[in-house]
Design goal:
The protein has 8 helices and 5 strands. The longest helix has 18 residues. By secondary structure, it is α+β, with helices and mostly antiparallel strands. Helices cover 40% and strands 18% of the residues.
C-alpha cells in the first residue's frame, strides 16, 4: 500500500477489489484515509480517541463466497468504501465490468509460478526479506515491462503486436529488453 500510495500521489485512486480478508479494508483505510480528532465535549471523563475514516473517493468492493460441502453455492458483491453508482461507472470503463478477484488471483498465480518461495506446499523459503522484496519487484517489473501478453497483443484486424501491460497503459511505447530493465533497475 505504501508503494502504491507513493506511485499514484495525488492522482485518482484505483478501484480496489478483493476477497473479504479484513486486513485489506483496514490497510486501505489506514493508507487512504484521514484521522478525525473529536472535539472535547466539556463533560467529565476521558475524551474520545481519534479515529480514521476512509477518503470520500476511495472505492473498494469485495467478493463474498458462500460454500457448502467445499463448493461455492453463492457469490455476493459487497461495497465496503465508496459510492455504488461511482463504482458501477468505473467498472463499465474497466476490462472486467463486474466486481471480481480474477486480476489479483491471476497476479498471485503469476508470482507463485515465477518464484518458488511463493509456491504452495514448497520446501523453499526466503532467508532475507531484503532480497525477497527485491526479487518480487524484479518479477513485477519483468511482467509489466518485458513480457508481452497475448490478450493485450491482439489487434482489431486479427494481427498481433507484442504489448506489455505498461504499453497498454501508455507508460512505455515498446517491450523492454532485459538489458534495458536491468539498467533502470540497478540504478535505483
Amino acid at each position: 500500500m505504501n508503494q502504491l500510495a507513493k506511485a499514484i500521489g495525488e492522482k485518482r485512486k484505483p478501484l480496489f477489489t478483493s476477497d473479504e480478508l479484513a486486513s485489506y479494508a483496514s490497510a486501505l483505510k489506514e493508507k487512504f484515509g484521514r484521522v478525525i480528532t473529536p472535539e472535547p465535549t466539556g463533560k467529565r471523563g476521558r475524551c474520545r480517541l481519534p479515529y480514521v475514516v476512509a477518503d470520500e473517493d476511495l472505492d473498494y468492493a469485495t467478493v463474498h463466497k458462500t460454500r457448502r460441502n467445499g463448493r461455492v453455492v453463492k457469490v455476493e458483491k459487497r461495497i465496503i468504501y465508496g459510492d455504488k453508482e461511482r463504482i458501477e461507472k468505473r467498472l463499465m470503463d474497466s476490462p472486467s465490468v463486474q466486481i471480481n478477484t480474477s486480476f489479483v488471483e491471476r497476479h498471485n498465480g503469476i508470482l507463485r509460478q515465477m518464484d518458488a518461495h511463493l509456491s504452495r506446499k514448497s520446501l523453499t523459503f526466503a532467508k532475507s526479506l531484503r532480497y525477497f522484496e527485491a526479487k518480487i519487484a524484479f518479477i513485477a517489473a519483468f511482467y509489466d515491462f518485458v513480457r508481452p501478453h497475448s490478450t493485450l497483443s491482439k489487434n482489431e484486424d486479427r494481427t498481433t503486436t507484442p504489448r506489455t501491460p505498461f504499453m497498454a497503459t501508455e507508460l512505455t511505447d515498446h517491450p523492454w529488453s532485459l538489458e534495458e530493465l536491468m539498467s533502470v533497475y540497478v540504478m535505483q
